[in-house]
Write a structure and sequence with these properties.
Length: 274
């Protein structure tokens, strides 16, 4: 967080209230002009840090805010999954989940460079609610990391049927790298049980700068000027992750170690050695 962040402070009538949380000195915060970037609207409040948003359809949204004071602008982004109940209060979901966070999210150690395309293999395991049918979980699967997200549909064998849907002009997901492992169903087991999960394998591709601009930068994965080729101090970061399955939302944080170098840096989940 670059001295400013975003929280969902409350909700009412399907609208979510957003609050810019600032670590700036009180005098700077009081003089700041906050601009929120919210899908389906753009809202600017001078000297205010509150706004609201209402979303017509389910999906992962990326909420942004900038704070400008005396010619200096800082910002933050929030990766927010919006489920069916948030868009249609009459929706009745079978939600018996034991946990609303991802079971796990793993990232393979990858070297990033400023201009050369890198591929970061990832895997997320998502716990399912008991009582879901196969059809409940095949369509409208959404997932992502640090604001870089996509939507897919699969068949009963986990093979991609549609997607990956991405922001216009952005292609950090490729169909051939996406694989989905579904829970097992049979004539004796027509619905999920509490221990069932869905596992998604995917790869983010792009240059270090492209991935920074797409969302990793908002969570701290940025090149550090004048970093040495080796021996730089590693930084432990918390990346945002989110998913939607069967209309239900999941949000977690993924701890990574980012070690900057003279060409960008390395991202991994190994323990930082100081």
């Amino acid at each position: 967080m670059d001295q400013v962040g975003i929280i969902v402070s409350s909700s009412q009538g399907g609208a979510l209230n957003f609050d810019a949380v600032s670590l700036q000195a009180p005098a700077l915060r009081a003089a700041a002009s906050f601009t929120f970037q919210i899908p389906e609207q753009t809202h600017t409040d001078s000297n205010r840090s509150l706004t609201a948003g209402k979303f017509p359809t389910p999906g992962i949204r990326v909420i942004g805010v900038t704070s400008s004071t005396g010619g200096t602008t800082i910002g933050a982004k929030l990766m927010l999954p919006i489920g069916k109940p948030e868009t249609d209060p009459s929706t009745a979901l079978i939600d018996n989940r034991l946990d609303k966070k991802l079971t796990s999210f793993t990232i393979k150690t990858t070297k990033l460079t400023l201009s050369k395309v890198s591929a970061i293999p990832m895997k997320c395991v998502i716990p399912l609610s008991a009582g879901l049918t196969m059809q409940d979980i095949l369509t409208g699967i959404e997932f992502g990391l640090s604001g870089i997200h996509t939507k897919i549909s699969v068949d009963a064998k986990g093979r991609l049927q549609s997607g990956p849907e991405q922001e216009p002009g952005v292609a950090h997901f490729t169909a051939k790298t996406i694989k989905v492992k579904l829970p097992k169903f049979s004539s004796a087991k027509l619905k999920t049980v509490a221990t069932d999960t869905i596992t998604i394998y995917f790869t983010l591709t792009g240059t270090g700068m492209e991935l920074r601009d797409a969302g990793l930068g908002a969570d701290g994965v940025v090149p550090i000027p004048n970093s040495p080729s080796k021996g730089a101090m590693p930084r432990t970061l918390s990346l945002q992750s989110a998913a939607i399955v069967a209309g239900m939302t999941y949000k977690s944080s993924v701890t990574v170690v980012f070690t900057p170098n003279d060409v960008f840096g390395t991202i991994s989940q190994r323990s930082a050695k100081h």
